[in-house]
Amino acid sequence: MIFDNPIFTEMILPFLLVFVLIFAILQKSKILGDGKAQIDALVALAVGLILIGFPVPRGIIVNLMPWMAVGVAVILVFLILYGFVAGDLSGDKTPKWMKITFGILAGLFVIGVVMKVTGLWSYVLGGFSFGGEFWVNVAVIALIVGAMIVAVTGAKKD
Hints:
This protein has helices spanning 6-29, 37-53, 55-86, 96-118, 120-127, 132-157. It is mainly alpha-helical.
């Protein structure tokens, strides 16, 4: 099937995604001038072709897009359920706490997915592989510092 073909999934789709995004950004920002769609298209074409030539950035994009789709689907399900219970979410009726919560959750999701896709996640987890004594010492030091902070701030209030 054509959708399983590596040429389609690892070349055509990433190229189209980057080409369209760069072209849209250049058209919206008018960095290269107003009414210069041909120049914007050539720059977007060059960036898209450069992306195809480098496997690591292309791999990041290919691996990131399915996770983005999962995140959007989860948000959609939540919004459908919330809309069913709370009613209209359009305009200024959306509670501020919901906007802040979704912003924080979306940011954490993006950071986590990018760390997983780029391999940084295993590097960070590898940093936690010190011996058990190390983490016990860190916890004791944190408790001591916390107790000192509480003692100093509590004494100032009196």
